[in-house]
Amino acid sequence: ALGVQADDLVDFSVNSNPYGPSPAVLRALARVPLDRYPDRECLGLRRSLMDTLHVGMDQIVVGNGAAELISLVAGAYLRPATPSERDHVVIIGPTFGEYRRVSELMGAKVHEWRAKAASSFQIDAEAIGSILQKIRPRLFFLCNPNNPTGAICPMEAIAEWRLANPDTLFVIDEAYIAFAQNTRSALELGAPNLLTLRSMTKDHALAGLRLGYAVGPTPVVDAIAAARPAWNVNALAQAAGIAALHDEPHIQQSLASLRAASRDLFDRLTALGLDAAPSSVHYFIVNVGNGAMVRQALLAKGILVRDCASFSLPQYIRIATKRPQDNQRLLEALKEVIPCLG
Predict the structure, then answer these.
(1) Chain center to CA of 30
(2) Pairing state of beta strands 139-143 and 169-173?
(3) Rounded to an integer, what distance in angstroms lies between the CA atom of residue 150 and that of residue 227?
(4) Of 20, 69, 13, which is closest to residue 292 (Cα–Cα)?
(5) Could you give the strand order of the β-sheet that contains 194-199, starting from the edge strand earlier in sequence?
(6) Do the Cβ atoms of 203 and 251 come closer than 8 Å?
(7) Residue 87 contacts residue 141 (beta carbons within 8 Å)
(8) What are phi and psi of 33, to 5 degrees?
(9) Pairing between strand 88-93 and 139-143?
(10) Of 40, 67, 135, 150, which one has the fewest beta carbons inside 10 Å?
């Protein structure tokens, strides 16, 4: 409608690794026999994950992206609502909308604690602990590092919450943890009421194939596995995941380049006078007053950013760092779209 050609569009709205997948992934995809059914148990990929994560194979379940796993958790753990009683779910926001969507789809009552811009969207561990004690939810969802803010919740807080609430399943979504350097993972807690979600579509740049996994205690993993459809992960995704896990140099080099580009982009955005929230990862939210208007103006210039209205942050846009030459194009476009900058 705006006359922008797809090939000319630079997409800053997607939080994936802009350096693309490992060349080993492309070679692996070419060898996949398309006339055969995929391994419905994902045994090869789970073995590779077992070696990488140092956990038992019975503690891993693979899904068609982390989004499917979120849905499977809700389906396995939230009981059908009755007129007199509903399961309760606590979500830490502003955050990914699928946690609320799948919980409400199952008839659960959702309670959201929201971080504030005034505190740079940081977690208030004491306030969340009080909510958990009051509500005693069946499920707790936390994106860590968070999407869209990039804030990180201290592992000590998660450990304390889960100890005080043994009947709650804590679902910690670590889809973006690879982008946050030296960040502790919930995997180290090894708790009986804690499930860690990971996505391979973001750091390994496999968004078109859809691939994620969950790690947790065997009874929880078994319940999720029982809820999944047969052959939920296709053969191409499984082969790509194995190849990506075995090319550690590619992921480390690309993430190092991305972190450097992200630091530079953040500094240059703030130098322009933009109010960008501090972030532990390569994406950050920026207060531009009217996110929808700025998004549309940038789109007309061939640049796509995320309008944060869906996170109930209509004044913000979310920008994910790309390669330096693309970041420069964004900065120049912002100067034209927001004339008061610089």
Answers:
(1) 28
(2) parallel
(3) 31
(4) 13
(5) 60-63, 212-215, 194-199, 169-173, 139-143, 88-93, 109-114
(6) yes
(7) no
(8) -75, 115
(9) parallel
(10) 40
Tokens 């500094």, residue located: 267
Instruction: Name the one residue in this structure whose structure tokens are 């994902």.
Output: 42
By the 8 A CB rule, do 172 and 142 touch? Answer: yes
* Each residue's pLDDT expressed in tens, for the chain with a length of 342 residues: 777 778 789 999 999 999 999 999 999 999 999 999 999 999 999 999 999 999 999 999 999 999 999 999 999 999 887 767 899 999 999 999 999 999 999 999 999 999 999 999 999 999 999 999 999 999 999 999 999 999 999 999 999 999 999 999 999 999 999 999 889 999 999 999 999 999 999 999 999 999 999 999 999 999 999 999 999 999 999 999 999 999 999 999 999 999 999 999 999 999 999 999 999 999 999 999 999 999 999 999 999 999 999 999 999 999 999 999 999 999 999 999 887 665
Furthest C-alpha separation in the chain: 58
Helix boundaries (H) for 109-247:
125-135, 155-164, 218-227, 235-245
DSSP letters, 3-55, are ---GGG-EE-S--S-TT-S-HHHHHHHHT--TTS---TT-HHHHHHHHHHHT-
* Whole-angstrom distance, CA of residue 33 vs CA of residue 182: 39
Residue pair 224/76 in contact (Cβ under 8 Å)? The answer is yes
Amino acid (one-letter) located at 39? D
Burial of 277: CB neighbours in 10 Å, binned 0-12, 13-18, 19+: buried
Which candidate, 166, 168, 164, places its Cα nearest to that of 91?
Answer: 168
* Type of residue at 206: L
